[in-house]
């Protein structure tokens, strides 16, 4: 595990964008695993900026997103596909055929999980997976549990996640209760993993996940075992850890 301590959100976004950009330059047809949430927005803005300046080309890049809510259509501004369209897909030259995100509207979510896992397999796996971390230690929507789930699966979101996400909805009753997420095994098979974290709100969970024993009740802790895992976090998020 490698920890890169950066000054602030902007510094984190730029450094993480540099890592993704190096991946695209080294392997133009790479498979990028992408995340949503507030943390990667600055990183996506940075990639878009470099694309605009002609420094990055997404023509051959393939993407697979970590997760999607069950039951939110693509036109709902809280769906993850909407987020990705807004922050990345529509702003760079990604081929729509090359972007993948679980379909939360599939009437058979279990079949959707199998379909999604096969897409990742058929692409030959993920070259670089980008992650954020939930306040409860979730990665993707792999919530604290007694076991680590291996493959893409349907999850019931925990109260803590529903609580954290309610700020995006008119009312807490409108927050979806289920999601489809890549499994911990799917994520761990990525060749390279980069997690970004910022702000003092993330400090307790960053400490819990990366300075203690591996524990499925803190799903992100398993990343300690990945052979090429980098945490890029700002001073505030690392303030409770000895780095
Ligand atoms: C998003 C995702 C989640 C977020 C996590 C942190 O696709 O998989 O695990 O990375 O909830 O979210 P933010 O960045 O909003 O703090």
Strand and helix map with partners:
Layout: E1 2-6, H1 9-26, E2 31-34, H2 41-52, E3 62-65, E4 67-69, H3 80-87, E5 99-100, H4 109-122, E6 128-131, E7 153-156, H5 159-165, E8 178-181, H6 184-188, E9 192-197, H7 203-210, E10 229-234
Parallel strand pairs: 1-10, 2-3, 2-6, 3-5, 6-9, 9-10
Antiparallel strand pairs: 4-8, 7-8
Helix pairs in contact: 1-2
Bound molecules: fructose -6-phosphate.
The site of fructose -6-phosphate has 13 residues, from loops.
Describe the overall structure.
This protein has one domain (2-234): Rossmann fold, CATH 3.40.50.1360. A seven-stranded parallel beta sheet has the order 1-10-9-6-2-3-5, with helices on both faces. Helix 7 (203-210) links the parallel strand 9 and strand 10. Helix 1 (9-26) packs across helix 2. It has helices at residues 9-26, 41-52, 80-87, 109-122, 159-165, 184-188, 203-210; strands at residues 2-6, 31-34, 62-65, 67-69, 99-100, 128-131, 153-156, 178-181, 192-197, 229-234. The protein is globular and about 40 Å long. With 243 residues, it is α/β, with parallel strands linked by helices. 30% of the residues lie in helices and 17% in strands. Bound molecules: fructose -6-phosphate (F6R). The site of fructose -6-phosphate (F6R) has 13 residues, from loops.
For this structure, what is the CATH class?
Answer: Alpha Beta
If classified by CATH, what would the architecture be?
3-Layer(aba) Sandwich
Helix content: 25-40%
Number of helical segments with 4 or more residues: 7
| Run of helices and strands | EHEHEEHEHEEHEHEHE
Provide mean pLDDT, rounded. 96
**Which strand order spans the largest sheet, edge to edge or round the barrel?**
1-10-9-6-2-3-5
Shape: globular
Structural class: alpha/beta
Kindly give the count of domains: 1
Radius of gyration: 17 Å
Number of strands: 10
- Report low-confidence residues grouped into runs of 5 or more: none
* Largest sheet properties: 7 strands, parallel
CATH topology: Rossmann fold
């Amino acid at each position: 595990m490698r920890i890169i301590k950066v000054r602030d959100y902007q510094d984190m976004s730029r450094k993480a964008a540099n890592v993704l950009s190096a991946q695209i330059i080294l392997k133009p047809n790479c498979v990028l695993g992408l995340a949503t949430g507030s943390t990667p927005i600055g990183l996506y803005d940075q990639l878009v900026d470099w694309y605009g300046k002609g420094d990055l080309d997404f023509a051959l890049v393939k993407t697979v997103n970590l997760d999607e809510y069950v039951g939110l259509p693509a036109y709902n501004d809280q769906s993850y596909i909407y987020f990705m369209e807004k922050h990345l897909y529509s702003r760079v030259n990604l081929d729509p055929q090359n972007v993948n995100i679980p379909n939360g509207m599939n009437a058979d979510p279990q079949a959707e999980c199998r379909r999604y896992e096969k897409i990742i397999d058929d692409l030959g796996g993920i070259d670089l997976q980008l992650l954020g971390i939930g306040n409860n230690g979730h990665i993707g929507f792999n919530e604290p549990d007694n076991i680590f789930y291996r493959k893409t699966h349907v999850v019931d979101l925990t109260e803590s996640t529903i609580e954290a996400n309610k700020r995006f909805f008119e009312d807490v009753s409108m927050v979806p209760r289920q999601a489809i997420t890549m499994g911990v095994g799917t994520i761990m098979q990525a060749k390279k993993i980069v997690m970004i974290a910022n702000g003092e709100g993330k400090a307790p969970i960053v400490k819990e996940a990366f300075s203690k024993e591996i524990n499925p009740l803190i799903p992100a802790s398993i990343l300690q075992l990945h052979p090429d895992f980098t945490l890029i976090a700002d001073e505030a998020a690392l303030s409770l850890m000895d780095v």
